TrEMBL record:
Job description of the protein: Cell division protein that is involved in the assembly of the Z ring. May serve as a membrane anchor for the Z ring.
UniProt keywords, alphabetically: Cell cycle, Cell division, Cell membrane, Membrane
PANTHER family, A to Z: CELL DIVISION PROTEIN FTSA, CELL DIVISION PROTEIN FTSA-RELATED
Cellular localisation: Cell membrane
Native organism: Pseudoroseicyclus tamaricis
Domain SHS2 residues, every copy: 24-225
Gene Ontology CC terms: cell division site; cytoplasmic side of plasma membrane
Subunit structure: Self-interacts. Interacts with FtsZ.
Similarity remark: Belongs to the FtsA/MreB family.
Membrane-related topology note: Peripheral membrane protein
One biological process term in Gene Ontology: FtsZ-dependent cytokinesis
Official protein name in the record: Cell division protein FtsA
Length: 444
């Protein structure tokens, strides 16, 4: 843990240096695609009144000057499985974005969806020596937490203080400057497998980039997809990617839980490919153009041309009904949503005062998925799109780019984390995710 703590401290310093140079890249490394946005920070006075929306949109701080996407290679379940292929795909996306921006970038902030995330809710308390709370006091209260048993080979990716209390006054976002005798904190810690991080960092460093930040795609997707009221009252963001589906829970404006299901849109495509005996690329096209979740009487009569170039006249002219296609897709989508429900139940999501669920990510664009999710999850469900930011191309405004846009907002408005203060890296306490969510709800 000491290694990642020091690495995160270095990333923080690099991010400050990159923002002073006014240009930085954000890199969303997914299973099916790799997206790169290049941001230029030109100060708040330049872009006043542009097309950004919301206080978190960051439109007054940056503009997107370059954007590119490419098919991901060497990735599975959001993790690197082929270093050479992954490096080639990342380099392609970065070079294309630099060409559009007509500038070179040396620093990048990246997010990823794999590495089996696991959440812990922590608490600590210290006596105040001075009359007012300062950075040193916050560092001491974060260090007052006990070290958790989070397993061998796991590293802390996010460590965010989500609540502070002074004496009996709770719900403080930033206690600095306030007076009191005892300071307490609630900390959310997200851990991931360390080897997955090391592999991703190696690929990015081979592309002649210095890593200035690292984030979970579940977190940044929610930042761009959840509106302020949903983040405050309680909501879950379901980020349906190609190889995995991320789950993040927000309450009082902070992420208090995260998990992932190792199933995504590519598994649906694989079922279509096997069920219809067509190549993968053709199955993806059929899913995108004709896919759905609920068959009607008209779908029995709507025929889909399978096509092909195998040389077999009969096979290349096959047709299937849309109802048959939906019959192949629906069981896999139900399986994904059932796994999501199990994660939410394990986290104690039913204890939240508001139980809004937002679907985002490329896999959420299947017609009818919103209704299917509402029936399985039993909650209010809506489809989420990322906030608009200045300069973002129209082609990158869909749900598939929630992580990339959220990462840009994360770069412009980072939340204070454990390594932003003088905290010894040996102390982080442990609590199960279910107890964490219930504890936050009961004590706030």
């Amino acid at each position: 843990m000491r290694d990642l703590y020091q690495r995160q401290r270095r990333m923080r310093a690099l991010r400050k240096a990159a923002l002073q140079r006014r240009v930085i890249a954000v890199l969303d490394v997914g299973t099916s695609k790799i997206a790169c946005l290049i941001l230029r920070f030109d100060g708040p006075e330049r872009f006043m009144g542009t097309d950004g929306v919301g206080s978190m949109a960051g439109q007054s701080a940056f503009r997107v000057i370059g954007a590119a996407t490419t098919r991901a290679r060497g990735m599975r379940h959001g993790e690197v499985v082929n270093m050479a292929e992954a490096e080639r795909a990342i380099r392609t996306a970065i070079q294309s974005a630099q060409k559009m921006a007509e500038t070179r970038v040396d620093h990048a902030i990246t997010c990823f969806s794999g590495a089996r995330p696991r959440s812990y809710g922590l608490e600590g308390s210290v006596e105040l020596h001075g009359q007012q709370v300062g950075d040193m006091d916050i560092g001491r209260v974060l260090a007052a937490c006990d070290e958790p048993d989070y397993g061998d080979g796991r590293e802390v990716l996010h460590a965010q203080p989500v609540n502070f209390s002074i004496d009996h006054r709770s719900g403080l976002a930033d206690p600095r400057g306030q007076a009191g005798t005892r300071l307490s904190t609630d900390l959310h810690v997200l851990t991931v497998e360390g080897q997955s991080i090391d592999n991703l960092l190696t690929c990015i460093e081979r592309c002649d980039l210095e890593l200035a930040g690292l984030a979970s795609s579940s977190y940044v997707s929610a930042v761009s997809s959840l509106v302020e009221d949903e983040q405050e009252l309680g909501a879950a963001c379901i980020d349906m990617g190609g190889g995995s589906t991320g789950v993040s829970i927000f309450y009082r404006g902070h992420m208090i839980g995260a998990d992932a299901v190792r199933l995504g849109g590519e598994h649906v495509t694989g079922d279509i490919s096997m069920g219809l005996q067509v190549p993968w690329a053709q199955a993806e096209r059929i899913k995108t153009k004709h896919g759905g979740t609920t068959a009607t009487g008209m779908d029995d009569r709507e025929m889909i041309e399978i096509g092909g170039d195998s040389g077999d006249w009969e096979k290349d002219r096959r047709r299937v009904s849309r109802a048959e296609l939906i019959g192949i897709m629906r069981p896999r989508l139900e399986e994904i949503l059932e796994e999501v429900r199990a994660r939410l139940d394990a986290a104690g999501f039913e204890y939240m005062p508001s139980q809004q669920i937002v679907l985002t990510g490329g896999g959420s664009q299947i017609p009818g998925l919103e209704g299917l999710a509402s029936r399985i999850l039993g909650q209010q469900v809506r489809l989420g799109r990322p906030l608009r930011v200045a300069g973002l191309p129209q082609a990158t405004t869909g749900p598939a780019f929630s992580s990339a846009v959220g990462l840009a907002l994360f770069a412009a408005h980072p939340q204070d984390e454990w390594w932003d203060f003088d905290v010894p890296a040996e102390s982080v306490p442990s609590r199960s995710l279910r107890r964490a969510v219930k504890w936050f709800k009961d004590n706030w």
